[in-house]
Amino acid sequence: MDKTPSQEMLAHAEKLCAQRGVRLTPQRLEVLRLMSLQQGAISAYDLLDLLREKEPQAKPPTVYRALEFLLEQGFVHKVESTNSYVLCHLFDQPTHSSAMFICDRCGVVKEEAAEGVEDIMHTLAARMGVCPAPQCDRSSRALRGLRGSRSLQHPRTLPARSYYSAQKESPLSGCRSGKKG
Fold first, then answer.
1. Which residues are annotated as a binding site for Fe cation?
2. Structural domain contains residue 69
3. How far is CA 122 from the centre of its chain?
4. Binding-site positions for Zn(2+)
5. How far apart are CA 143 and CA 47, in angstroms?
6. Which CATH number is 99's domain given?
7. Which of 20, 61, 130, 159 is most deeply packed, by most CB within 10 A?
8. From CA 17, how far away is CA 10, in angstroms rounded?
9. Which residues, other chains included, contact 30 with Cβ-Cβ below 8 Å and sequence gap of 6+?
């Protein structure tokens, strides 16, 4: 029997955890499996509801501990603007930059490799005399007219292991020290 893409991804995650010497517990694996079935980002409490179908005794700390582990391993990203989580489709690349686009109508999240975006942000910040905030590299304006009538918003640069928060005011801090953030 052929494996589904979700099963292949889970097997790959198990292999990576074994190589890294970290433990992908059954609960962590189940949270990752549930996330792999989502079309977009999902909140921790929605994940908890799904997890309780299999593990009725599951509590919020169960999900938050699993999500913390999955974040540390680069298997998921946190979408700060919606306080939700999304599967990283590039987790086999331990250090990568990606742009994430969230549809403001249906919530679907698309991740694409975006190498060089961080360098561009640092160059622009230096030109403006500010430091990029270490926890925020994103544009806050909506992108209209993408894919027909769908509107995608909030492009974000998310290097694996460095999760950026979404700030609506500005993607740059007011720091004038000249140091990179």
1. 118
2. yes
3. 21
4. 103, 106
5. 29
6. 1.10.10.10
7. 130
8. 11
9. 51, 54, 55, 66
Q: Which residue has the tokens 């179908």?
A: 53
Residue 84 maps to a domain: yes
Per the CB < 8 A criterion, the answer to whether 170 and 141 are in contact is no
How many CB atoms sit inside 10 A of residue 92's CB? 13
Domain presence at residue 68 = yes
CA angle 57, 33, 37 (to 5 degrees): 110
172 within a domain of the structure (yes/no): no
Binding-site positions: 103, 106, 118
Number of domains within the chain: 1
- Where do runs of H (alpha helix) occur along 21-165? 26-36, 44-52, 60-72, 117-128
Report the b/e string of 73-82 with b at 16+ CB within 10 A.
Answer: bbbbbbbbbb
Whole-model pTM above 0.85?
no
Weakest mean pLDDT among 109-113, 151-155, 168-172? 168-172
Which stretch of DSSP H or E encloses residue 96?
none
Residue 32 is part of which domain span? 5-131
